[in-house]
Amino acid sequence: MTGGTSVLPTPAEAEALVRERVQPLAVESRPLESLAGAVLAQSVRSERDQPPFDRVTMDGVAFASQAWRAGRRRFRIAGTQAAGQPPLSLADPEECLEAMTGAMLPHGCDCIVPVELLRVEDGTAIIEDGVPVEPFLNVHTRGLDAREGDMLLARGTRLGAPELAVLASAGMPRAEVCSEPRIVIVATGDELVAPDQPIAAWQIRRSNSYALRGALTLRGYRRVAEDQLPDDPAVLAERLAAHLATHDVIVLTGGVSMGRYDHVPSVLRQLGVSEVFHKVAQRPGKPMWFGIGPAGQTVFGLPGNPVSSLVCMLRYVLPALAAMQAERVRSVEHVPLGAAFKVRPELAFFLPVQVEHSPTLGLVAMPRPTRGSGDFISLLGTDGFVELPPGPREFPSGHLAPLYRW
Ligand code: AMP
Ligand code: MG
Known about the structure:
Layout: H1 11-21, E1 27-31, E2 44-45, E3 55-56, E4 60-63, H2 65-69, E5 74-81, E6 95-99, E7 111-114, E8 119-121, E9 124-126, E10 139-140, E11 151-153, H3 161-169, E12 174-178, E13 183-188, E14 192-193, E15 204-205, H4 208-218, E16 224-229, H5 233-246, E17 249-253, H6 264-270, E18 274-278, E19 282-283, E20 289-292, E21 298-302, H7 306-324, E22 334-336, E23 341-343, E24 348-358, E25 362-367, E26 384-388, E27 393-395, E28 400-405
Parallel strand pairs: 5-6, 13-16, 13-17, 14-15, 17-21, 19-24
Antiparallel strand pairs: 1-12, 2-11, 3-10, 4-6, 4-7, 5-9, 8-9, 18-20, 20-21, 22-28, 23-27, 24-25, 24-26, 26-28
Helix pairs in contact: 1-7, 4-7, 5-6
């Protein structure tokens, strides 16, 4: 067992240890339709200039701005340039072409006046004085947004809606991404009873598994299995050996403290999972355990108390998954406290907060402390937690703190 508080890693040190030790997941090619939330394992360059041609941005008429500047106000409509058609040519600068949004700017034209700003009489467009006619009016010029071959997406990018559009625009029906981790959430504790089972006065509903799975599902992790095990070293050893054989990540809850029935660390060591740290200088969640399995599996022993297990999931398990997928490290959102808060323990403090808008400070994190790490009811209505440095110390309103959203 690791010694006194002074030698325990801080949350930042523990996170760094986790990120350093986890093993990268394999890379696979997957179809574009399945890539929301995946982490790119290749870079992506622009297939063409973007936009790929001078693109009409308003429905209207296309013509040569020079003719209008020279005094011409009436342009006979010589044809229609639709989107998805090769470009027409304006043979006579005294004429114009109807042009639709998304069409290629016809040859011989350099501007578009929208239908709202012109009149049509007998097949002639009339563009009066005062219309702001100038070259490239309502034209999205070729290559303005990106050039062919420009790097658009770097390796390690997590794919959201804009990134998926860029992949499609680059003509990529598939992409190389990191495979999804196979995760199992293992609840331990003789007192735990599933939500659909009869319950005795001395038993507890198994709730952590649902909260933890929810945190994963909300972030797009879908390969999540579950198990519930008793505080029995033999059963733990047998079942955890099976999970080690079939999963990349094991997230245990409970059984990592100092109690007589807290067998998780010793069973994991017995199975060849090497301990990286046990306990972190934090509250809640101090007893947390982390190790790496014989085949590089990532193993977390989260404390059983519901608030502890959830904050540890956000603070360590999610960064571990990101590191396994080689996701580029993103800076954590910081928000000022909306009210002063006193931290008593000489430990980093994870304070649940509600994010609100204050007229003076803008977005603020209002402290919503729980009545200890077993009080998950007080988390209702909170948005996440902020991390405060070790006390004893009073943090003033306005103290900027990293925010981890549930
Ligand atoms: P432990 O870490 O095993 O000592 O558990 C600490 C506290 O958390 C105990 O009160 C447990 O009953 C409770 N607990 C453990 N696991 C769960 C769970 N999966 N769901 C809800 N409460 C739990
Ligand atoms: Mg227990």
